[in-house]
Write a structure and sequence with these properties.
heterodimer, A: alpha/beta, Immunoglobulin-like, 6-stranded parallel β-sheet, 5-stranded antiparallel β-sheet, 6 helices, B: alpha/beta, 11-stranded mixed β-sheet, 3-stranded antiparallel β-sheet, 11 helices, 14 strands, 27% helix, globular
Chain lengths: 309, 375
């Protein structure tokens, strides 16, 4: 595996250099190719090319939502399929998505959001949507912050822990993976401990609700109201905090309408950058009980809110 | 991964499951509103414990569901005069609304296009408001969902300029039509979205609200009348209260209705009982469950009016041989509610009495003065 040229996701392209005009027309400026094809591309101009061996990458399922209308449930919210926990569990890995045109921009945003190295394979229809998202991502100021976590989660690498992390990501419960308990977290969770037994973990949903209740909603760094398909990642650096918002409904063409964000801390300034709507501005900004709240008017796929105190 | 099983097990392990009609097990509601109660609230208003019922056999054709607008106009006039004691219609309406007001008319369209706040009644209200000097542009006919609202076509029977507005337009789920500063926060079953926000113009725009509910049974609440139309009809994210057979409608309806500025701004209730639904409400999927009480109720006390509604629905169900809305037997729970013996939920008609304990009106039937007029 070569070092990817930048921290942005990159299109993985197996066709030959005769397709270069197609790529350029779509707005693709950088690709990854099989190492064996690298020489074929050496004379192509205006495209940055690097070799990537997919066998060294972990393939990720397409992100999105699934509607389980045939399953009676406590909630009518769709099932969000996020790769967040995988990207957090293996931060040093390189990842690979094989996604269609509907999902390619969301997959690119997801990889970017978790600051991971990823390549995306898509078909001809996916080139332009992907290129548009990659261009948007390239215009964002680099994220200098560290992930904000309310929960320290001691991951033993098991499938059970994987599912617990998956559900925490889906519920916007911010956590960091630890090897052993560390100070500085509102809650430490270790499956198999007295508080979170392996017996309880047989029902991960129940366990994650218990984690939420032990943490309490009041202590959660971020909460989102008005949508069930938007997941958030929060990073912070000094007086600055960045919220990245991913609309997993985008995989089904669902644009999310106005929703409310509640984040702990009092921030005087906020700037929204929303994919597909450069004019979007946050609304109904307010402070309440040690927190800042605002409304994001809509979310096509991905948005970043930069906050400063 | 079995979603259903997970959720059920979670519920079985939490106290939320037992939330019901016992005070000790009510959900923990957190109400946030910048509005303070008025010293002269609209609810229960000047006519606490009074309900005026105007009945006319000629008001609607039971076969065609055709409403006679002229008869409805007379019913409105008679009801308002009886309620207020005034002799002129203008004086009746001036009890509640002044020309400076911005008036919201809360209709109910969840059973549209068959069962909804009748356009003839809504048009009659608008006509009276305009007659006392309220500019048509200061009148809003509103609902939560635009699709339901548009299916009725109120705009065809009211003057140009009247606003037809819904909180949620083409795609449901946007909070743009809700006020972020007025909400109720409650966790019923571990749901992630725990807030219900108030419809924005109710908080920010209207100075007076006229509530025009429909006379209906409700699968979860027992009935849906005055209280439910200004609670679930005024807030987002409310259907989460009835995810399971045992619902939280018992306390949620009154709680939402009591959130300021609801009690301050809602000054008049005109319940449309020309037609109604006696089973499988609030929708009107099954024609066999529609009925024609041919009446309109008037009052300022939503609890007293809903108490009368309970009797109307209960009497109709008894006549049809259907179980009482107070029945809580699990044997009557079932997915097929095209059969009037079955229902998806345990109904909570006790929500009306619960609302009385929040100061929203009179529940005791002995203390309610029902004044009937036959036209």
């Amino acid at each position: 595996m070569l070092i990817l040229l930048a921290a942005l996701p990159v299109l993985y392209w197996q066709a030959g250099p005769d397709t270069a005009p197609l790529l350029k027309q779509a707005g693709i400026t950088q690709i990854a190719v099989p190492p064996a094809n690298l020489n074929l591309w050496k004379n192509v101009r205006d495209l940055r090319v690097e070799g990537v061996n997919l066998q060294e990458s972990m393939q990720l399922p397409p992100p999105g939502v699934a509607f389980r209308m045939n399953v009676a449930s406590a909630s009518r919210v769709p099932w969000v399929n996020s790769n967040g926990w995988r990207l957090m569990r293996w931060p040093q890995r390189h990842f690979y998505y094989n996604v269609d045109a509907n999902t390619a921009p969301l997959a690119a945003a997801e990889a970017f959001c978790y600051n991971t190295l990823a390549v995306l394979q898509t078909d001809q229809n996916g080139l332009q949507p992907l290129a548009t998202m990659l261009h948007f991502l390239s215009t964002l100021t680099p994220d200098a912050g560290d992930p904000v976590a309310d929960i320290g989660f001691i991951d033993d690498g098991s499938p059970v822990d994987a599912e617990v992390m998956n559900l925490m990501v889906r519920d916007n419960l911010l956590f960091r993976i630890l090897r052993s308990p560390e100070p500085g977290y509102k809650l430490i969770v270790q499956v198999g401990s007295d508080e979170y037994s392996k017996e309880e973990a047989k029902n991960p949903d129940l366990l994650v609700h218990k984690i939420r209740y032990n943490l309490t909603d009041a202590k959660r760094t971020i909460r989102i109201f008005g949508t069930s398909v938007v997941l958030a990642r929060v990073t912070a650096h000094g007086q600055h905090t960045r919220i990245q918002l991913l609309n997993y409904g985008a995989s089904r063409g669902m644009q999310v309408g106005a929703f409310r964000v509640h984040i702990l801390g009092r921030y005087q300034n906020a700037q929204l950058r929303s994919y597909g709507d450069e004019t979007a501005r946050i609304a109904d900004y307010s402070f309440a009980a040690g927190a800042t709240e605002f409304t994001v008017p809509e979310l096509k796929i991905f948005a970043v809110v930069d906050l400063s105190r | 991964m079995d979603v259903d099983r997970r959720s059920f097990l979670y519920l079985a392990a939490t106290s939320s499951l037992v939330a019901g009609n016992e005070e000790g097990s009510l959900p923990n509601y957190h109400i946030v509103t910048p509005f303070r109660p008025s010293p002269h609230p609209g609810i229960p208003g000047p006519y606490k414990g009074r309900v005026v019922r105007v009945h006319s056999e000629k008001s609607i054709d039971s076969h065609s569901a055709q409403v006679d607008r002229a008869v409805v106009k007379r019913m409105l006039s008679a009801g308002m005069r009886q309620l207020t004691g005034e002799r002129r219609d203008e004086d009746c309406w001036a009890h509640f609304v002044s020309p400076e007001d911005i008036v919201g008319i809360k209709v109910n369209c969840s059973g549209a296009p068959h069962i909804m706040s009748s356009p003839e009644i809504v048009a009659g209200i608008v006509e009276n408001l305009v007659a006392i000097g309220v500019p048509s542009r200061h009148i809003w006919i509103y609902e939560r969902f635009l699709g339901q609202l548009k299916s009725v076509g109120y705009e065809k029977c009211v003057p140009q300029g009247v606003n037809i507005w819904a909180a949620e337009s083409s795609s449901r789920g946007s909070l743009a039509g809700y006020d972020p500063n007025v909400y109720v926060e409650v966790d019923f079953f571990g749901e992630e979205d725990t807030r219900s926000f108030m419809v924005r113009p109710v908080a920010e725009t209207f100075t007076k609200i006229i509530n025009v509910p429909k006379m209906k049974e409700h699968q979860a609440a027992g009935v849906t009348g005055c209280l439910k139309n200004i609670s679930y009809g005024h807030f987002s994210n409310v259907d989460r209260s009835h995810r399971f057979a045992k619902t939280n409608t018992y306390s949620f309806i009154g709680t939402l209705a009591s959130v300021e500025p609801n009690p301050t701004k809602v000054v008049l209730h005109i319940m449309d009982g020309l037609s109604g639904v006696w089973h499988a409400g609030p929708f009107s999927e099954y024609p066999q469950f529609r009925f024609y009480p041919k009446q309109i109720l008037f009052g300022t006390d939503p609890v007293a009016m809903d108490r009368i509604l309970l009797d109307v629905i209960e009497a109709k169900r008894k006549m049809e041989g259907a179980p009482s809305i107070f029945d809580r037997s699990p044997s009557h729970l079932g997915r097929d509610n095209s059969n009037p013996n079955f229902n998806h939920f345990i109904r909570e008609p006790g929500h009306v009495e619960y609302a009385s304990r929040l100061g929203l009106g009179t529940y005791d039937i002995k203390k309610i003065r029902l004044e009937g007029i036959e036209l």
